[in-house]
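Handoff note, outgoing to incoming analyst
You'll be picking up this chain. Sequence as last confirmed:
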Amino acid sequence: MGIAFYQVDSRTVGRKAMETNSSPKTLEEVLGRFERALDTPVISGELPQWCENAERACNEVEKQFHKAVRENHTPLLEEIYAADPELATRVEQIRKTDGELVQRLAQMQEVLHGLTDAATVVERDEVRLDDQVEDAIQAGLELVMAVRRQEVTLTTWHGEALERDRGPVD
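Most recent structure output, in case you need it:
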């Protein structure tokens, strides 16, 4: 039994590489990219690059989340309220959470920017930043989960508003 060799089509490989490096189009894609950046182990000597990657991914999330709030959340919240005014409290809570997430994303961007700057200064003594990096990873992963939870919450209440059984009123 011999070793099987496969012919590689360089055009396909190049296209796959371009697809993985292309800009994500959806909020879920940028959340996944940010999560992967945070989950990627920090290799000794590469802390500045790790910080830059995490910061860049966080910036993408911030842009896509703002876009989602503007283009998706706002119209859906208006539709929820129009379909079922009894859900006004839920609509306000979702709006409030959107605002809180915008603030948390801005704070995360500041933290990662600060880490990127600090990582370039400490260079060989990057162990000094271990606790700060770990805190940023934890906060970032919690933020990813919170944004995903917000998306599910919005979808759930939108469905509830449109399909809700209101008893004899229906």
